[in-house]
Amino acid sequence: MNDERVIEGGCLCGAVRYRVDGVLRPVVNCHCGQCRRTHGAFGPYTDCARADLTLLRDETLAHYRSSPDVRRSFCARCGSTLFWDRDGAPHISICAGTLDLPSGLSTAGHIYVADKADFYEIDDGLPRFEGSSAGVLDGEASN
Length: 143
Hints:
Layout: E1 5-10, E2 16-22, E3 27-30, H1 33-39, E4 43-49, E5 53-58, E6 61-67, E7 70-75, E8 81-86, E9 91-95, E10 107-111
């Protein structure tokens, strides 16, 4: 995990901005069918304690309930995927590509590789799991 610090991020058009005051988990690349359709390939997610996330601007923040207890948040203007959120969970997942640089993060591994798209290979040598890593990837909140 990165050291506790402040980092900001937001959507492509700038209508949604957020700040994290705390620790971000290393990035976990999720290759499940929902992330594949949402991101076009895989979803690179970090996460933080829910209490550490502050919305600075949210005028176009919209939500989609992708599963009974999960919502995906995005900008209704530019379409940027921003958050993945399980009801009642203490952490919220953040699409790592929306963080301002430098993020200071590294990638821990890959989950749901059984569902990955067929037009790319995973050859980075990082741990891979056919489904969830069941928390092996440093406290992962499965996407």
